[in-house]
Amino acid sequence: MSGAQTVLAKVKALLGGGGGGGKAGLKGWILPGIAMLVLLGFLFSDSGGFVEVEPGEVAVKYNNTGLGFLGAAAQVIKEQGVVTFLPVLQRVEKLDARPQIFVMEGDSDVDHNHTRRLTVRANDGSNFYFDRLEIH
């Protein structure tokens, strides 16, 4: 026997797939195979247990189980870097923390942060408007 065949025979003997072959060796691989597929699914999915928090972002880590040893129900993470979590037991949401400026000016809506001018109705029924209004 060559060196590779000897190593292969030793591995088969350790795993219980020795001389009997067939179904006895296959039965021992079903549960570990399913566990490996589940772990690979978590690893290659979007929620693989790692999220990168960029500058200008804030992350919130939620504990989906309610178990105290996994942390608080919600934890705010303000530092940039990689945040780790357990994919089924915890969830991480990233939020934009940069200041948003809401501008009201002009006659039409430009986007969701820039809308048309603010028109106000007075008690006597007259209307007036602000040329430009910014909300920080």
Q: TL;DR?
A:
The protein has helices at 3-15, 22-44; strands spanning 50-53, 57-63, 74-77, 81-84, 90-96, 102-105, 114-115, 119-121, 127-129, 132-135. It has three domains: 3-44; 50-96; 102-135, no CATH class. The strands form four sheets. Strands 3-2-5 form a three-stranded antiparallel β-sheet, with no helix packed on it. Strands 7-6-10 form a three-stranded mixed β-sheet, with no helix packed on it.
Describe this structure in words.
With 136 residues, the chain is an alpha+beta fold. It folds into three domains: 3-44; 50-96; 102-135, no CATH class. It has two helices and ten strands; from the N terminus they run ααββββββββββ. It has helices spanning 3-15, 22-44, and strands spanning 50-53, 57-63, 74-77, 81-84, 90-96, 102-105, 114-115, 119-121, 127-129, 132-135. The protein has a three-stranded antiparallel sheet with strand order 3-2-5, with no helix packed on it. Strands 7-6-10 form a three-stranded mixed sheet, with no helix packed on it. The chain has a two-stranded antiparallel sheet with strand order 1-4. It is rod-shaped and about 100 Å long.
